[in-house]
């Protein structure tokens, strides 16, 4: 029997950490130039799309007061928070952007002209159990509309999301956006458990969201657990589970009141989606409820049709978040679209474009005496907006030409003793191999 106790798991981690300072923490990524080219290409597409839909870009700090993110509905995201105490403050790295956006809206609520349409591209942190496409940091493109009650906002957002799938080269049918309305579920429970305990709805949705992971029996147990906070009756739990199996609006009508507002909204939304030409890509699926507590209405999640990856994007309507955080009520709807899952899908489908380093001109001085002239040439070209690499003095010409070719440069500008004496620079076109001379800039 060992007399002294071995190190605790936490102690082991600290020790391991000491020896791993040269590794990025598990679940995080380094972005080398080739990774950055892909990231920028994807983010450019996000940005261009959002701008084309008339959205404006905003940003907020990556560190917020932890209490902005801590909620009581039992969401995973709260347990996954990267948080710490610093100088008596409890701070956290953002796990998502929505609470920060809400904070920004609330801060200027009186002076804002609604509706506002904002987008963000931000890094988020969640201490996740890692699977394919699920990481401890990820970037998310968010688009949110605040101050618009009607499903016109949902339709615009879904159209923007589809625009990106199309632009990425994914054929129609390769990605499906499954859509539901939490309001439909809420309506069906209004006369029952929600009449006396409306606060039950958020944890109820969080539990239902686990159905794929833990199965319908375990979900029913959690919904019915008398000691738990939800405590549905057997009849209610059964009805909820039955509703989750619904896959069309006509079928959903069986569960809804004849004057159901939620159903009427869904029908209107599908009419609009039809006008955008995307209704077929967005099947109704009552099992989609989403794992975040704050959603109140339409919710949606995009998946690869093969079903091999986790959700590519997800969002919905969250009309009560501003109030929950202490602001005045404002309707809101939006989505988050991660970079990691779509990256895996593009890889699987061979859809990443070839993204090369892009240098346009290389300037080369044969020796130190020509360096001043080379700098002037490079300066002029850069002032004209070209991407210019100034080859290091003394580098071998063969190597410089090879590098120039690899970096996609169109021209090499060569200055040797002879050129300097004659006040010219030799310009070689790398595709035609033709050469000509140009005067050296005087200063
Ligand atoms: P979410 O479903 O938690 O929603 O995240 C949105 C997307 O971000 C996911 O579909 C996924 O692509 C990506 N994502 C989330 N967590 C990870 C992770 N650990 N690793 C890799 N990718 C991840 C939200 O965050 C909401 N705030 C979205 C929203 C905006 N709703 C309304 N407005």
Describe this structure in words.
The chain has helices spanning 9-19, 33-52, 76-79, 98-107, 152-167, 182-189, 193-196, 201-208, 211-214, 216-224, 234-244, 249-252, 261-275, 321-324, 340-348, 371-383, 397-406, 417-422, and strands at 56-57, 63-65, 83-86, 89-93, 116-125, 137-146, 175-181, 298-304, 313-317, 332-338, 361-365, 388-390, 411-415, 424-429, 435-439. By secondary structure, it is α+β, with helices and mostly antiparallel strands. It folds into 2 domains: 33-349, BirA Bifunctional Protein, domain 2, CATH 3.30.930.10; 361-439, 3-Layer(aba) Sandwich (Rossmann fold), CATH 3.40.50. The model has no long low-confidence stretch (mean pLDDT 93). The site of histidyl-adenosine monophosphate has 24 residues, from strand 6, strand 9, strand 10 and helix 15.
Highlighted features:
443 residues; BirA Bifunctional Protein, domain 2; Rossmann fold; 5-stranded mixed sheet
Which helices and strands occur, and which strands form pairs?
Blueprint: H1 9-19, H2 33-52, E1 56-57, E2 63-65, H3 76-79, E3 83-86, E4 89-93, H4 98-107, E5 116-125, E6 137-146, H5 152-167, E7 175-181, H6 182-189, H7 193-196, H8 201-208, H9 211-214, H10 216-224, H11 234-244, H12 249-252, H13 261-275, E8 298-304, E9 313-317, H14 321-324, E10 332-338, H15 340-348, E11 361-365, H16 371-383, E12 388-390, H17 397-406, E13 411-415, H18 417-422, E14 424-429, E15 435-439
Parallel strand pairs: 1-5, 11-12, 11-13
Antiparallel strand pairs: 2-4, 3-4, 5-6, 6-10, 7-8, 8-9, 9-10, 13-14, 14-15
Helix pairs in contact: 2-5, 5-13, 10-11
The protein binds histidyl-adenosine monophosphate.
